[in-house]
TrEMBL record:
Keyword Iron: yes
Residues forming the catalytic site: H83, N156
Organism expressing this protein natively: Pedobacter psychrodurus
Keyword Endoplasmic reticulum recorded: no
EC number: 1.11.1.6
Function in brief: Decomposes hydrogen peroxide into water and oxygen; serves to protect cells from the toxic effects of hydrogen peroxide.
Protein name, as recorded: Catalase
Length: 730
């Protein structure tokens, strides 16, 4: 057998979106085509089954009917056990600068290369058909189709997790999912089993603060941060490693909705986030994130007051700044939800040379789970051959056969070493892009235990709470009062109050008040019930030190980007007789700034302006709701104003928009409409031009001033400060 010298294949730069090109060969477009069976036979009649006479029984012979119904009967696959409800999009990623000092990952070393990505956002607890606006963590999973194979960054929109060890994941998920006897509640953590588990698991405290914060109610997938959560490793070509935490920073800022709003959206449009992502991409307003990294040299592994391997801890950005190293743009919606969004299979173990793992015990467990789950969900070991999962580089190995195998492997050998095929496919040297695991030194005893460095369960929960603005703190208190208020067992509520008291006494006191309970005195050593059978409770007692950082601004959303109104949805309320100039000036300015404007009227069709112009109506008060918009404008016009003033839905729209802290603007000619609301009376006493930007409400006859101020107000997103002093019924 002739011995071949392996030819060195360099890693080509990725210049175009070759994933899209590769997917093309699998796309079926039926435009202008004949209907066929799955075997290509042209079908003459797809509307009538084959019968013994017009009024007779259907014949078993009808292979067309049989094929169609059989396929239909098998259309469903198991939904993901977690993250079942998701939405995805295609896009590209580009690194800003060569990162080769830190990592040999080729896609991070070539600023000229454009790497295709497929990103799936999801909620965690709900089923496939559940509402987008459930209070929940959001999945943020990115598949990079690099020239060295797929790299999956399977993260969440929160930087920490509930548990420190993967062995508890099934318990956590069983606790949060609907209760097993009655399958209630759907997509909600507000029930006994979840809080029963959490109240005995103090390590979840930090994540609970995130999950009860407004981060769990994103305004849009496009306005969420993403986090890799675990500490990973970057390894450079010399084999030198550093620790790395991954971040996604949205260029539209991080924004949320109010809890009352979220609950309403769930009824009015359960697809709110899915629609928002789809519509933005269809409109060419492509969502963008910068990829950030926090780098910690190996020598600094023990420099922090928390353990870098503990997934319930983050590295405060004040201690290690986030360097923005590249940008991701989502620019194409999937062609087919099932084929792409549903069948995409992420795996935290899909890495490329230059990216490696750490011993975070949660990460280690994930490395097993993701392939395992795809085997059942996608039906066998060949799920990597499904078009959306295929890498853009060729796959060559000695794995063979199995259900639904697509690849036709040539040749006699499916083993190695082999002499028959000169050892093809060959192992790749490091210089040829071969992956080698980081050479971490390990010297240990086998043991089921947790490191004491993981036992501080509260300091970062407290740091998170202390870093929030006052409205954000109030929302956390309200969220806990709501969730624990839905819990039936008093002892669970009480135990949870004892946990909260370890985080912050004031927080616990407020929640206790809402629940009509007292905070029980449970010693620290009694709080942790996750101890082994032979363990001593005292050995598993949490420690509760103070974080040396009093506050971390990056943890609050208050200081996020507030300089754009791009893609915000604005409602203009109008009726026949509207002042056309007042309507158009505001509409045109908002559209020019990138906002999406809808005209909402008592009925669909057209309205006729004061000067007899026809204006197309986008939504009626029946089809629209204030919770689907970010801000609202009321133009003048005597008849329009009189109609709106008498239209209960219009007044409710404004009251609700005010309740949810949104920007509201009105032409002075529309003052009467505002005067019919609850909130305006509360405002007018102290209403001056200076208070406008604090309250987020402007009424003016000067259309230029009005428009400029309205744009500024929409960019501010929400006026949370007015929420408590100006509580109104709506
Ligand atoms: Fe997952 N997770 N996970 N997870 N996860 C899944 O994989 C698992 C964890 C995350 O859009 C499953 O294909 C274990 C942390 C996302 O398709 C499953 C543990 C983080 C998605 C699984 C965790 C995540 C999943 C279910 C604890 C943030 C959706 C279906 C050790 C860093 C990906 C599937 C998509 C999905 C297991 C914890 C993120 C069962 C065992 C921490 C975004 O394999």
């Amino acid at each position: 057998m002739a011995k071949k010298t392996p030819e060195k294949k360099s890693i080509p730069a990725q210049q175009e979106n070759d994933k899209t090109t590769k997917l093309e060969s699998f796309v079926a477009d039926s435009t202008g085509e004949f209907l066929t069976t799955n075997h290509g036979l042209r079908i003459n009649d797809d509307q009538n089954s084959l019968k013994a006479g017009e009024r007779g029984a259907t014949l078993l012979e009808d292979f067309i009917l049989r094929e169609k119904i059989t396929h239909f009967d098998h259309e469903r696959i198991p939904e993901r056990i977690v993250h079942a409800r998701g939405s995805a999009a295609h896009g590209v990623f580009k690194v800003y600068e060569d990162m080769s000092e830190l990592t040999r990952a080729a896609f991070l070393c070539d600023p000229g290369a454009e790497t295709p990505v497929f990103v799936r956002f999801s909620t965690v607890a709900g089923s496939r058909g559940s509402s987008d606006l459930a209070r929940d963590v959001r999945g943020f999973a990115v598949k990079f189709y690099t020239q060295e194979g797929n790299f999956d960054l399977v993260g969440n929109n929160m930087p920490v997790f509930f548990i420190q060890d993967a062995v508890k994941f099934p318990d956590l998920v069983h606790a949060v999912k609907p209760e097993p006897d009655n399958e209630m509640p759907q997509a909600a953590s507000a029930h006994d089993t979840f809080w029963d588990f959490i109240s005995q698991m103090p390590e979840s405290s930090h994540m609970i603060m995130w999950a009860m914060s407004d981060r769990a109610l994103p305004r849009s997938y496009r306005m969420m941060e993403g986090f890799g959560v675990h500490t990973f490793r970057f390894v450079n070509a010399k084999g030198v490693a550093s620790f790395v935490k991954f971040h996604w920073k949205p260029l539209l800022g991080v924004h949320s909705v109010a809890w009352d709003e979220a609950q309403n959206i769930s009824g009015k449009d359960p697809d709110f986030h899915r629609r928002d992502l789809w519509d933005a991409i269809e409109a060419g307003a492509f969502p963008e994130w910068e990829l950030g990294v926090q780098i910690v040299p190996e020598s600094d592994e023990f420099k922090f007051e928390f353990d870098l391997l503990d997934p319930t801890k983050l590295i405060p950005e004040e201690l290690v700044p986030v360097q923005r190293i590249g940008k991701m743009i989502l620019n194409r919606n999937p062609d087919n939800f099932f084929a792409e969004t549903e069948q995409v299979a992420f795996h935290v173990g899909h890495v490329v040379p230059g990216i490696d793992f750490t011993n975070d015990p949660l990460l280690q467990g994930r490395l097993f789970s993701y392939t395992d789950t795809q085997l059942i969900r996608l039906g066998g070991p060949n799920f990597h051959e499904i078009p959306i999962n295929r890498p853009v580089v060729p796959v060559h190995n000695n794995q063979r056969d199995g259900h639904m195998r697509q690849t036709i492997n040539r040749g006699k050998t499916s083993y190695g070493p082999n002499a028959i095929a000169a050892n093809d496919p060959q192992q790749a040297k490091v210089a040829d892009g071969g992956f080698v695991s980081y050479n971490e030194r390990i010297d240990a005893k086998k043991i089921r235990a947790r490191s004491r460095s993981f036992f501080d369960h509260f300091s970062q929960a407290r740091l998170f709470f202390n870093s929030q603005s006052d409205p954000e703190k109030n929302h956390i208190i309200d969220a806990l009062s709501f969730e624990l208020g839905k819990v039936k067992a008093i002892e669970i509520r009480e135990r949870m109050l004892a946990v909260l008291a370890q985080i912050d006494k004031g927080l616990a006191t407020e929640v206790a008040y809402a629940l009509g309970l007292h905070i029980p005195e449970i010693p620290l050593a009694e709080l942790n019930n996750s101890i082994p059978a032979d363990g001593e409770r005292a050995d598993y007692a949490s420690t509760n030190p103070e974080s040396s950082l009093a506050k971390s601004d990056a943890l609050s959303m208050a200081g996020t980007i507030k300089d754009t109104i791009k893609t915000r949805k604005i409602a203009i309320l109008a009726a026949d007789g509207v002042e056309e100039k007042s309507l158009s000036k505001v509409k045109d300015t908002l559209v020019a700034e990138g906002a999406v404007v809808h005209i909402i009227a008592p009925k669909l069709g057209e309205i006729i302006s004061k000067g007899d112009k026809k204006i197309t109506v986008d939504e009626s008060f029946l089809t629209a709701a204030s919770v689907l918009y970010d801000a609202v404008y009321v133009p003048g016009g005597v008849n329009s104003v009189a109609t709106l003033e008498a239209e209960a839905n219009a007044i409710h729209f404004l009251n609700e928009a005010f309740k949810h802290c949104k920007a509201i603007a009105a032409d002075e000619g529309a003052l009467q409409v505002l005067e019919s609301t609850y909130f305006f009376k509360k405002l007018t006493a102290e209403y001056t031009e200076e208070t406008v930007l604090r309250e987020g409400v402007i009424v003016s006859a000067d259309v230029n001033l009005l428009t400029d101020t309205f744009v500024k107000m929409i960019a501010m997103h929400r006026f949370w400060e007015r929420e408590n002093p100006r509580k109104i019924p709506a």
